[in-house]
């Protein structure tokens, strides 16, 4: 038992010794990361505000009251006060200088003629400067270092009590108690500030991770939807390749073998796509059995929106031509999500939807709503994906189009998508 206690005490003392000789800070000034230059200079101003009066007052008191030699008094006063400026960047090193000077000053004054009836071994100036130093230490150094500083302060006071118990008064106990209080308060405030800073950093990281997760989920959802589109084309290729020898009897043998190879490759691609869909599908989710929607069902979205209490009108070109299936699906989803956002964020706002080609190979999808009027009910069957603009941007990026969104001067909102009607390299 005693051996375990001794080992624990030895480890603790060794840790405190290492902490007292190893500053935790990299030499960065207190407040160095503040945005304002005035805040960065403030610690230096405070340190100089302590040193400027303490240095001459300490010299005067040591010479006139304690009858210390002028040269010795000047050296002691400088060592006891000037390192307070160093404490802004290196408080532990400054403590070693000041603590050594304070202890040396106590022994110097012990042999002086003016000690009787005056505070010893610490002068009032020493107490003020030491407490200012404790403030810098508490804001920078580790808890072990602070405990070591406090214990060293108490040890020095105990030594002076032993050396001259009649001269040592309550000032040794006063400095010991006050230094401990300042160290505890500043360390607590620093710990709270660090905890709040870490919390803000964690919230920022969590928000970024949440946005990233939302983006990945929406991409996976789009990929699952486009599986049907791609699978349809691959199925058509397979059927055409398999039936080519029967539809074209005069095909040479080389062409028949080529079509058979194409059909086999298409079937293998379909099998790989099914495996990919299993990976993309969420655990426990079932595959969609209904065909993917397109622009032919936009009118149903408008009707559902009107039933929810949002006045909406549709302008759909009569002849859209041959719209690629991916663009057809993306345009539908963009309108669906835009209408869902109107119901959620601008209930009762008059909304206009326009879908028409521009004659240059692009399909323009426009959803414009005015300011909110009144609260409406949720859209039946058209609540969107819940990912809003994220999903719209991903669908537009997938098809090689462009998206323009933003508020209107009257308080409404505008969603404008431009999707290619032909095949793009993107």
UniProtKB/TrEMBL annotation:
EC number(s) given by UniProt: 2.7.13.3
InterPro entries: HATPase_C_sf (IPR036890), HATPase_dom (IPR003594), Sensor_HK_TwoCompSys (IPR050482), Sig_transdc_His_kin_sub3_dim/P (IPR011712)
Annotated ranges, domain Signal transduction histidine kinase subgroup 3 dimerisation and phosphoacceptor: 218-283
Keyword Transmembrane among record annotations: yes
Reactions catalysed, as given in the entry: ATP + protein L-histidine = ADP + protein N-phospho-L-histidine
Top EC group: transferase
Histidine kinase/HSP90-like ATPase domain span: 330-422
One GO location term (cellular component): membrane
Chain ranges passing through the membrane: 41-63, 70-88, 94-112, 119-139, 145-163, 170-189
UniProt protein name: histidine kinase
Swiss-Prot/TrEMBL keywords: ATP-binding, Kinase, Membrane, Nucleotide-binding, Phosphoprotein, Transferase, Transmembrane, Transmembrane helix, Two-component regulatory system
